[in-house]
Design a protein that fits this description.
Layout (H helix, E strand, L loop, with lengths): L2 E3 L4 E4 L18 E4 L7 H24 L8 H26 L1 H20 L7 H23 L10 H13 L26 E17 L5 E20 L2 E7 L6 E13 L2 E21 L4 E15 L5 E7 L2 E8 L6 E7 L10 E3 L4 H9 L3 E12 L2
Helix pairs in contact: 1-2, 2-3, 2-4, 3-4, 4-5
């Protein structure tokens, strides 16, 4: 660990020199000082401190050159030490997650590659050849993992997700991957119109959003403005597998981990004033289910949330109650393609055709007005990512 010095409000430490492979070396007379807590530092803390140290080191060298003075004879050694410490404290901890988490890889691979590129520009690629190779290996593994995610469960060239497949193919080819392997049109990865791939699925990762905004008036001169939305992310584990039915389900009632948030801002206005209904950031229940019919290769889905809300009447008196923000019921969606998601505008249950997808809602004064003037549509979006048996 760093060497704690002074009054406990700062930390003195010496840069890790490459030749010492992790040993602390440097000047006891002139240590590097990091202000704040002497506890463990996060990678971003190290990154900021080391970047500042490098900038100060180079600035002093430029000042010496401009003044016609001799530069620091240990400049190269100090730069090498900073580069090495940056790898150990910032770059190396990122590499395992880059290899296994595609979203993290896409957000951070440029940083690790930038470190490797700077090593080469500094002429230190021979000294850091092992570390540079470790970075490249992790980048290749991360890109391959993104490719595998993009082609699961299969590739549907007519789906909007095909653009993602092409993107991942190009990325892998750019870093040296074989065009024969990373080929979006490979016959063996194309969807075949069946649901056989479901046999290997153990869970579905869901990202879902719901939005309903609608205004209207009634015959008594009252007006209603409804503004509701909610979002959820969850892993839906396999809950039922019988004959041609395969169901994946997650519910807060069952203790399943679900991340959700919501917004409610409904206003009913009449000649007597306004009544408002708003959320109070308390969720009672979230239920998310997807049920496949393998005989037809389709699925139904239901996404539901019930929350606590408060209605404030014309006199300013609040009243708490339960409220269903909105429930989406998806009917007979094709599962034969590689696209297990969609963005859709759903009609209300009272206005939808028999057998079609629809949304429903909990009622307040503003929503009741819309029964006369029209309940409109809700915009919903869902993405289902299959989790396959290894």
């Amino acid at each position: 660990p760093p060497i704690v010095a002074g009054d406990g409000t700062s930390v003195s430490f010496h840069l890790m020199h490459f030749s010492d492979h992790g040993g602390f070396t440097g000047s006891e007379v002139d240590p590097i000082i990091i202000t704040d807590s002497p506890g463990d530092f996060m990678p971003k803390d190290w990154e900021a401190q080391l970047a500042q140290m490098m900038a100060e080191l180079l600035a002093k060298e430029r000042e010496a050159q401009l003044a016609g003075e001799e530069g620091d004879p240990d400049l190269n050694e100090k730069i090498e030490a900073i580069v090495n410490t940056f790898f150990i404290k910032v770059i190396a901890p990122m590499l395992p997650r880059i290899m296994s988490d595609c979203s993290y890889a896409e957000a951070n691979v440029s940083k690790v590659l930038s470190w490797a590129r700077n090593v080469i520009l500094l002429g230190m690629d021979e000294a850091f050849s092992k570390e540079v190779q470790t970075v490249m290996d992790a980048t290749v593994a991360g890109a391959h993992n993104c490719w595998l995610e993009a082609i699961e469960p299969c590739v549907d060239q007519a789906s909007p997700t095909f653009a993602r497949v092409v993107q991942m193919a190009r990325m892998n080819q750019l870093i040296g991957g074989s065009p024969d392997v990373y080929d979006p049109w490979r016959e063996d990865i194309q969807c075949d119109g069946t649901c056989d791939w479901l046999d290997d699925v153990t869970a579905l990762n869901l990202e879902y959003s719901f939005s309903w905004q609608q205004s209207g008036s009634d015959e008594y001169g009252g007006s209603g403005d409804v503004d509701r939305s909610w979002n959820a992310q969850a892993a839906l584990p396999l809950s039922q597998k019988y004959d041609t039915t395969i169901q994946f389900r997650a519910s807060t009632d069952s203790g399943d981990p679900v991340t959700a948030s919501y917004h409610v801002d409904d206003v009913y206005t009449s000649e007597y004033g306004s009544r408002t209904t708003t959320g109070i950031d308390e969720i009672n229940r979230v239920s998310l289910s997807v049920t496949f019919d393998t005989s037809a290769c389709t699925y139904d889905a239901s996404f539901h949330i019930e929350v606590r809300a408060v209605t404030t009447d014309e006199q300013g008196t609040p009243s708490e109650h339960n409220l269903t923000v909105g429930t989406a019921n998806i009917k007979d969606h094709s599962a034969a393609s590689g696209s297990l998601g969609e963005t859709a505008s759903l009609p209300h249950q009272q206005e939808a055709a028999d057998g079609s997808s629809y949304f429903s809602n909990g009622w307040d004064d503003a929503a009741h007005v819309l029964i006369q003037s029209g309940l409109g549509t809700a915009n919903v979006s869902w993405i289902l990512e299959p989790v396959m048996d290894p």
